[in-house]
Amino acid sequence: MEVASFCVSTAYRVPQLPTLVFADNLPHMGKRSGIIDHEEGLASLSLAELDREIARCRTRVEIAVNNRQRKQFESRIHWLESYRHRHHAD
Questions:
Q1: In Å, how far from its chain's centre is CA 69?
Q2: Of 1, 13, 17, 64, which cross-links 69 as Cys (Cβ 3.0–4.6 Å)?
Q3: Does residue 24 sit within a domain?
C-alpha cells in the first residue's frame, strides 16, 4: 500500500496524503451548530432570547472584517426583527 503519492508541479513536488473519510465523520462546512436559520427554530425562542440574538448580531456588524460579513449580519438582523414584529408585537 502506498502511503503518499506525489503531485508534480513546475517548481517542486508536494506530497499528497491519502484522505480517510468515514460516513459518520463527514465535514459540515459552512454550518454552525446552535445558530437558528429557519422560522420554526425562532418559534422556540422567548422574546428575551430573540433580543439577545439581535444584540449579538449587532455586535457582529460592528466587528465585521469585511463588507460581506457586515451585509450578512445586517440581513440577519432584519430577518430577526421582522419575525419579532410579526410574532411578539405588543
A1: 11
A2: 64
A3: no
Locate 41 and state its grid cell: 427554530
Does a structural domain hold residue 71? yes
Q: How many structural domains does the chain have? A: 1
Contact between 55 and 88 (Cβ < 8 Å): no
What range does the domain containing 57 cover? 39-90
The rounded distance, in Å, linking the Cα atoms of 59 and 26 is 32
Give how far the C-alpha of residue 68 lies from the chain's centroid of Cα atoms, to the nearest Å. 13
The answer to whether position 44 is within a domain reads yes
CA-derived radius of gyration, the chain: 22
d(CA 14, CA 33): 34
pLDDT tens track for 8-59: 555 566 666 555 554 455 555 555 667 888 999 999 999 999 999 999 999 9
pLDDT exceeds cutoff 80 at 80: yes
For the chain, the residue count is: 90
